[in-house]
Structures are given as C-alpha cells and as structure tokens.
C-alpha cells in the first residue's frame, strides 16, 4: 500500500459519503494505491453510515471505538492500523479539501518527510474560522512556537491536515493529550525535511465543530508535557521565567534602596539592576543549567553572564530605536527588543557560560 488516509470522525453523519467520493475523485488519476481509515468515536448514525460505506467500498476501513475518545488518540490508532508507506491525516468535515491529496502525496513521494498544508503561507487562507476562533488559534500557535523549538519554523503547527512518511514515527512514543496530534509528531518524530503548501481552510457545510474550552486547556497541558520532556525546551522556558522574576527582584530592590536606605534614585536604579542580574545568575546556575557537566567556577561564568546581559540591553535599545524610526511605538519596539535579546542571551549563555 502506498498511501493511507487517516480520518478521525465524531458525529459526522452528513460528511462521510461526500468526503469518500471526493477523495476517490481527487486520486483517480494519481496512480496511487491507497486506502481510507476512519477512526470513529461517533455516538450517532455516523456509525451506520460508515458501516454501509465500508461494505460497498473496498478501499474504506472503519475502526470504531467505544471506550476511547479524542481526536489525537484516534489519529495515533490510525497510525497503527494504516499500512501505507505514507499517511495523510485529515478532518472528516471537508474543511480540509481532498483535492490537495495528490499534491501532498507527490511531495512525500519526492522525499519530503512531513508535508503540512498551511493556512498561513502565501496563498493560504483561514476563512473557515470566525474572528474569535482565529484569535484563539493565533495565541495557541504562538504559545507553541515559544515553548517548543521544533515548532518555530512551522507556520501551521496546530493543523489537523498533514502527511508523513510513516517511518519517521518508528521511534516516537506518541502520547498526545487532546487534539493537536501534529505538535506531538513534530516534537517526537525523526525527520529532516518539512514542507508547507498553501491551502484554504473552508467553512463547514454540515454538522458542527467540536472544539471547546476543554480542548484548549488540553492543548496547554499537552504543551507543558512536551516541554517538560525535552531538556533544551525546558531550559529555554526556565530561562524566560527566571528573566521575568528578575524584573520583580529589580523592583523590590529599588523600593528598598530608595525608601528604606534613602539612596539617590539613579544609584538605586543601577544597583537594583545589578542585584537582579546577580539573582538571575544564581537561579540560572542552580536551576536552568543545573545539569551541565562543566566544572567552570563562578568567576568565569558570572562575568560572561554579565557581559552577555549587557549586550542584551544594547540589542534591546537598538531594536527599539530602529523600530521607532519606522514609526513603531516605543513600548512595542522595546517589547520586540526584549524578545530578541532574550533569545540572544539564552543562546549565548547556552553556548558560552554554561557550555558542557
Ligand atoms: N475520532 C474522533 N474522536 N474524532 C473527533 C473527535 C473525537 O473525540 N473530536 C473531533 N473529531 C473529528 C471531527 O469529526 C473532525 O473530523 C475533526 O476531528 C476536527 O473536528 P472539528 O470539530 O471539525 O474541529 P474544528 O473544525 O474546530 O478544528 C479543526 O480545525 C483546526 C484548525 O485550527 C481541526 O482539524 C483541528 O485539528 C485544526 O487544528
Ligand atoms: Mn472542522
């Protein structure tokens, strides 16, 4: 079998026949041996529809689950059942156009490990979501990209539409929470090439979305779990949290020096920043990079840390100034600068200060 198409379905009665016929239509001239796997948790007549289709269509297989629920776990079951060299995952509700299948398959066959139809590359569109869902979806993607290095270059990491060479999952212990199976695949798979192709995420014709607040919470838990399992991602997050804690230390120190010690404002401000820097150094040394094997002493590490932080301050200010010239408000420019200098400081401290 060349290609298995895995489709999670939950109460999609009116979408089953249309999607099957559109898949056949789309792949008719593609010279590919394929089958279609529905991994179904439905509680309505979808179950009967699927049974009828399975009986008359030899390419269609149905795996109905009574005990399990959940989109991502359905897809994991699909990966286990699918016999194709390549697997393409798509929703049952036709928001993912089957007409893209030949193109995805072609990229896979040409050697790309993971192919992701994306709403956010040039030519794609997110038309199927309302403004609120668009916003939530944006937050979810940004959170994912901050938390997990492997998602950073992917524009549509929360997509439920993607194809892969099945072999890339050989050593992946897939254990997703909730819906977003693609982030699990991207973090745990063994692959070299990912390619995104544009597509238009369409509105639903029949049935309704099962997205809920609970699934958004699950996504957050899923991210946390993936971060905690990955040492380098965990380090970056700790570095950011400790950096933020430095702001609090800075303010407290300033308050103490100004109101209790009655120091001059400028001197108090400089000392408060130095105290925050020292505090950040200690936390990072004791927590973030606790597991490094290097036995360098603090009088090498601390000056490096301070030098990197000072350059970070310069980067922040330069970015703010540069953006201000482009008429970006100073506060926003500063925020962008802080983001860039955080990445700079993390990378340099990782490579120099706490190098293994
Ligand atoms: N087996 C199974 N079990 N399938 C499920 C379950 C479940 O518990 N919950 C939902 N599904 C199926 C639906 O039947 C549909 O085929 C697909 O998963 C997506 O569910 P929708 O309810 O249509 O979700 P959506 O349109 O809000 O979200 C889709 O678009 C997102 C774009 O941001 C999904 O494809 C997401 O994966 C995608 O990220
Ligand atoms: Mn949908």
UniProtKB/TrEMBL annotation:
Top-level lineage group: Bacteria
Pfam families for this protein: Glycos_transf_2, GtrA_DPMS_TM
Domain GtrA/DPMS transmembrane as annotated: residue spans: 239-354
Domain Glycosyltransferase 2-like: 4-170
SUPFAM superfamilies, A to Z: Nucleotide-diphospho-sugar transferases
Transmembrane segments: 236-260, 266-283, 304-320, 326-347
Sequence similarity: Belongs to the glycosyltransferase 2 family.
Protein name from the UniProt record: Glycosyltransferase family 2 protein
Taxonomic source organism: Alicyclobacillus dauci
Lineage: Bacteria, Bacillati, Bacillota, Bacilli, Bacillales
